[in-house]
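Quick log. Single chain, no ligands specified.
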Amino acid sequence: VGLFFGEVDPYLMFALYNNSIYARHQTFQYQSACEPTASSHTGAAHRGFYV
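-> predicted structure:
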């Protein structure tokens, strides 16, 4: 439950695909995950000046 059937039993999935029970549907994931960057505590203003 919750797993892709081709990962659980790839040989059975291949047999089901060859017998036209399942069809191949290829998708692409265009999102990317960037690693967070460390925040910099240095600013452009002088230390004595606060907004």
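Residues 30 and 36 are 19 Å apart (CA to CA).
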